[in-house]
Amino acid sequence: MTAFGSRLVSAISDRSPLCVGIDPHPHLLRDWGLPDAPESLRSFGLAVVEAAAGRAAAIKPQVAFFERHGSAGLRALEDVLAVARDRDVLVIGDAKRGDVGTSVAAYGEAWLHPDSPLFVDALTVSAFQGTGSLASVFELASEHERGLFVLCATSNPEAAGIQLATTETGETVAATIAREVAVLNSAAASSMGSIGLVLGATIDVRDFGIEVDANTPVLAPGFGAQGGRLEDLRTLFPASAPVLAAVSRSILEHGPDGLVAAIDEAVATVSA
Fold it and tell me: Which of 97, 121, 124, 203 has an alpha carbon within 20 to 30 A of 146's alpha carbon?
């Protein structure tokens, strides 16, 4: 197995920097003609996987929409993940896990251990209890050559008060997280780090004091329905590090029969 950072670079080069979200909102299920039920989550997710395979670098299931259906919803997610692995699509589990000690280690085991049915290529995590609180997850990701995307500077306005707050170093909280992740990636054996940052596409990261490190991958949500423009990807993130442009609703709203065309259009825009 190759480290996640290297696999991400290859996926973007071979296909595109697009990351298609799997967000089965109840209203989207309804628009697709599906009931709000676990079997619908499976059908919805599998349709996205098949449409994205060979076109997008990655898919990103939003775990919350599966969890709301309890164990049946998670079984549906497990089925979607299994097919995605067979189709050679990188999967980013958008679970935003964070905790301390054995609790965060258990989250890591659930999503990053090869024996888990929820095994993904990368997981979104929260470092707002301190980057050091994720040490066991960093170790597990490295052991199994998985990736992580650490929440850093996000698009939602209510986060700015915390992420722009300054620490004892004089940096913003977001800049501190970015710097500490860059240090971790600099120690990696791979030429590209496997610990990335979540940076919103609707903000200017310079306002947060962030300089994107060339060895730190970026997951950039906020394109499409949230206002970010795919054609601005490299203006927003000019560093040479791999950047995934995450798009969900503006593709999913085209329905199952329109997914391929919507993805192809997004790929053409972001790759221009």
Answer: 203
